[in-house]
Amino acid sequence: MKTAALIAITLAWPLAAQTPSPSAQTASPAPAAPRTADGHPDLSGVWWRGADVGGRGFNAGGRGGGGAPTFASLYQASAAAKAKTLSDKDDPTLGCVPTAFGTLNVSMFDVGAVAQIVQTPKFVVMLTETFHGFQIIPTDGRPHRDDVPPSYRGDAVGRWEGDTFVVDKTNFTDNTWISAEGRVSFHSDALHTMERYRRVDAKTLEIEATVEDPKVLSKPWVVAKQTLVLAPFDQIMPLICTPGDTKELIDAAQSAKK
User: Fold this and answer.
1) Residue 22 maps to a domain
2) pTM for the whole thing?
3) CB 10: neighbour CB atoms within 10 A?
4) Which is nearest to 190 in space by CA: 77, 87, 79, 68?
5) Residue 92 CB: number of other CB atoms within 10 A?
6) Residue 56's pLDDT band (cuts 50, 70, 90)
7) How many domains does the chain have?
8) How do residues 196-228 score in pLDDT, each as one tens digit?
9) In whole angstroms, what is the distance from residue 195 CA to residue 173 CA?
10) How far apart are CA 104 and CA 112, in angstroms?
């Protein structure tokens, strides 16, 4: 079985708890997006594609994302040559290391398909269900920090452009992948991402992103727009990963290489 499938089986929590009822999927005009006391759209909520991995309504490609370029499709010649030496067994997520951007082209998902946003007057906090990860994004105008070491998810600052929340991330380590689960997409320490979050209405969140890596890519990767919907539950569950949990995945990946 492919590593991707094994990870999906291992990390996805019970689908029955996350598959909305038919009544929840009934089409009806959604009310306007809620706003915070300072007038900005409130991004708070649990967001997904309509179901967890493998569940009814799950769309792995993302709505509006079919046929779009991938990060790996823009490799420079040297990066393409390096990618040919890598396979599932080299995937850092097998050791519970998060991705730099997300396997479904949604940064806050990491290798999962569910995430939660908590918005306050000074911060937007993105909580990732898989690996129990998080990112704290200040929104008070402060610059990137120059006194912290590089990190898996980078250093993030946010700003509002009208009703769109813009997240600028830099200062990544180079030992994670952009993607995982069978897709080899390494990156360098020059990685820079810009994400734009827009709450279209009470039930819909649109995300656009541009990813730059001048050491690896021939040009910036413009990610296809991703459309998420508000989940019918208001809390994510912690899915903590330990190397012991992924031993079978590692063994499978090693066997596939032979």
Assistant:
1) no
2) 0.83
3) 13
4) 79
5) 16
6) low
7) 1
8) 999 999 999 999 999 999 999 999 999 999 999
9) 19
10) 8
